[in-house]
Amino acid sequence: MPLTQVPDSMLGLGGGGFSFRNRIINGAMMIDQRNAGASTSTQGYCVDRWAFGSSTGTLTAQRTGSVGAYSLTLTATSAVTALNVYQRIESVNVADLAGLVVTVSFIASSNAITTLPVSVGYANAVDNFSSSTLIASNNITITSTPTRYTTQFTLPANATNGIYLNIANSLSMASGNTLIISSVQLEKGTVATPFEVRPYGTELALCQRYYEFGRTLVSASVANSYQQSFLVTKRATPTLGLTIDAGTGAVISADGSSNFRPTANNNQLSAATYTASSEL
Amino acid sequence: MYKLYKPELGSENVIRLSDNAFIPFDPVNTDYQKFKLDVTNGDQLQDADGNVMTQDAANAFIATLP
Fold first, then answer.
1. Taking CB atoms and an 8 Å limit, are A253 and B30 in contact across chains?
2. Are residues A179 and A102 in the same domain?
3. Which residue, A205, A226, A261, sits at the end of a domain?
4. Average pLDDT of chain A?
5. Same structural domain for residues A36 and A149?
6. Residue of B9, B20, B33, B39 best to disrupt the A interface, most CBs of A under 10 A
7. Structural domain boundaries, residue A271
8. Same domain membership, residue A168 and residue A59
9. Which of A13, A169, A230, A247 could form a disulfide with A119 if both were Cys (CB 3.0 to 4.6 A apart)?
10. Using an 8 Å Cβ cutoff, are A74 and A52 in contact?
11. Which residues make Cβ contacts (< 8 Å) with residue B30, sequence separation at least 6?
């Protein structure tokens, strides 16, 4: 039976054999560890797993909506050129799609934009997107009414290096223009199945493979330091940040992708907040 | 700008001075990949004592990294 004839109840939460069709993490835009729903104008990662950047101009990105109906809203605060809004998918999660057709589906709307270029490309080296190759870019005509759109791409053999989905490929926006995106899905085959709803805890854990933050205790000296575990093992040895509640000079170092060690807080034991990023 | 940092325990890092992030020398860490590109393209690298390395010295150091 084609997936299009499968009842929605089998495809969603608890749908059994048809789960994890979606290779996009946080396609529902509900996980927002960095900003917790606040607006950010700092280009880079915004809601979990999604990043944005432009060549010129300024804009904000924000998780909008409410539980069960979140979106990523981008608003140009000046004229913007070459905006990209993308998610990079690591090699181990897409290698099986090399040589196959994939279908991308998403809900989009805008107060002014009518043509949305959606592209897919691959990393030129395994999980290294410092240089990448465009596979194809498809123009989607959108309106001010949130509508679900679908488009297809054929992934080449090099997709085994990891791919990106760019939901706004080199887009220009005038000041005040908005772009609202939600329910992004990338799946094997030529059929866009209903958006896959995954449990919140599962989606959060998937995101935490790439970024997490938490509280920790910083030892007063190296001799008294101890190794602590990340909430989720990271994709790679992560980049770490540390903000201590009291004291100076504290440092933090990663022991591989599973553990870290905060220490040397000038002889003062202190609580602290850490961040760990192994984004692509 | 970056500064080398060798903790008493654990592996060597480089500190990204713009946000004091500790970047490990892991070839598949994206920030590490960018660090090497940035320094190769002329961004400043300081040794562990805070001395600014010459471009030649920085390039030579980068060449030794994984």
1. no
2. yes
3. A205
4. 92
5. yes
6. B9
7. 209-277
8. yes
9. A169
10. yes
11. A128, A129, A130, A278, A279, A280
Residue A257 and residue A185 share a domain: no
Which residue from B9, B28, B33 is facing A261, i.e. has the nearest CB? B9
Express each pLDDT in A225-277 by its tens digit: 888 999 999 999 999 999 999 888 888 888 889 999 888 777 788 999 999 99
pLDDT digits (tens, 9 = 90+) for A93-112: 999 999 999 999 999 999 99
Mutation to test the A interface, candidates B14, B18, B26, most A Cβ within 10 Å: B26
Output the domain CATH number for residue A190.
2.60.120.260
Strands (E), A54-114: 59-66, 69-76, 80-89, 101-109
Gap from B64 CA to chain A (nearest CA, Å): 19
Which band of pLDDT confidence, cut at 50, 70 and 90, is reported for residue A18? low
Boundary residue ending a domain (A189, A205, A221)? A205
- Using a CB–CB cutoff of 8 Å, tell me whether B38 touches chain A: no
* Strand B13-16 relative to strand B21-24, pairing: antiparallel
Question: Which residues in chain B are contacts of A252 at CB distance < 8 A?
Answer: 22
Closest residue by Cα to residue A33 from A16, A44, A48: A48
ipTM, two decimals, is 0.93
The token pair at A148 is: 């679900």
Is residue B52 within 8 angstroms of chain A, CB to CB? no
Round to whole Å and give the CA distance between A44 and A64. 18
pTM assigned to the model: 0.92
